[in-house]
Write a structure and sequence with these properties.
By secondary structure, this protein is mainly beta. The protein has strands spanning 13-14, 24-27, 35-37, 42-47, 52-55, 67-75, 81-86, 93-98, 104-107, 112-114, 125-132, 142-145, 148-151, 167-168, 177-186. It is globular and about 50 Å long. The two termini are 18 Å apart.
Length: 190
């Protein structure tokens, strides 16, 4: 839920409220100013220079399993990653980011889906969700921004790699500058 605060027992972590123990460890962060008022309760605030979180030994929902990943974000800086797991290759990556126009982009590795709406680096809260059915392919994957769906194209089978831990706020080279709140992973196509 990202509801930690500067007075939490572990302000350098974002606890997994599902009870599965998939705590996000925060990196590059000094002090406790990274917990700010969010969309619901608090949110994780990242400065765009070297801040991020990762979940040690949690690889995200991988393979061809059905899934929905949802979160809230708020930023004024376009062209930044929001989260990533998987690995480079054909349909083996799962990367959410904003492009230079402020559109949400899902990069699956070799295929991208870009939201039909742009301008989301506007300093307001936006809801972002991705739904992939069981044994899904690039054509039946959907990305939603503030409830508006954009469908993928093609028929490449999705087989997200399980070799890398989930990273929040980075893709390994760039860093998100803004707030992320209420990050959820569901083993279902919602």
């Amino acid at each position: 839920k990202m509801n930690e605060s500067s007075t939490s027992s572990s302000p350098g972590q974002a606890a997994d409220s599902s009870g599965n123990g998939r705590t996000a460890l925060l990196q590059g962060i000094t002090g406790t100013s990274h917990w700010v008022v969010g969309k619901f309760g608090n949110a994780l605030s990242l400065d765009g220079s070297n801040d991020y979180g990762f979940t040690l030994n949690y690889k995200g929902i991988t393979g061809n399993d059905r899934r929905t990943i949802a979160l809230w974000f708020k930023t004024s800086t376009a062209n930044k990653p929001i989260l990533q797991y998987g690995a480079s290759g054909t349909a083996t990556l799962f990367k959410l980011s904003l492009n230079s126009a402020g559109a949400a982009v899902l990069d699956l590795g070799g295929t991208s889906i870009t939201s039909s709406s742009t301008g989301h680096a506007d300093g307001n809260w936006h809801h972002l969700a991705v739904a992939i059915p069981a044994n899904g392919n690039t054509g039946n994957t959907k990305i939603y921004v503030d409830g508006t769906a954009t469908s993928g194209s093609g028929s490449t089978a999705i087989n997200t790699d399980n070799n890398n831990d989930l990273k929040i706020g980075t893709d390994g080279s760039a860093y998100f500058n803004g707030q992320i709140d209420d990050l959820r992973f569901y083993g279902a196509e919602l």
